[in-house]
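Re: beginner question about structure tokens

> Can someone show what the tokenized structure looks like for a real chain? I only ever see the sequence side.

Sure, here's an example I had lying around. Input first:
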Amino acid sequence: MSIYFRFVPFLGMMSTLLLHQLNRNTILVSSLAMSTKKIQSLPYQPELKSGPRFERVVVIDGNTLDLFINETILRAAAIAKSVTVASKPQMVLHELQNTERLSDVPELIFLDLEMEGMSGFEFMDEFSRLSDFIRNKCKLVIITASMKKDDKQKALNNPSVVRFLRKPLDVYQLKDFIYS
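And the corresponding structure tokens:
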């Protein structure tokens, strides 16, 4: 499986990245920058656990390319049995509002802050109005390209937010969050 990343900071420069999943434990990252090819092998060693840590996670992002990249990285890292994606935060809120069984609630929602229609902050406001049984099980992980310090502070002040990650999501950020 190969994934293309376009114009992302890598090795201190803007690059085009190509990820190859060589096997379960190794991801190869190829970087093409200024007509030179740099290849770095990134060993990925998941913690030895019996299966994924989470049953279900949801990724919400208005950008379909980011949505695809984040979904693929989460699936490759095998942190959850089920990874669901949504480009419209309103649909996820509607699903959560109509949930009757705790087993239908995801444990994590990876949420972008900058989306059309409903921002990540508006989603967090609506999420805070959901029932306690949903908010106690489901936690939010912010994943954004925003460099605003105010955004980070505002997000982390929300009691449902457990981590603030910068785009592009990578396996090392994810591993550090999951296993720390």
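Each token stands for a local structural state, so reading them left to right follows the chain. The helical segments are 64-77, 89-97, 120-127, 132-137, 149-156, 171-178.
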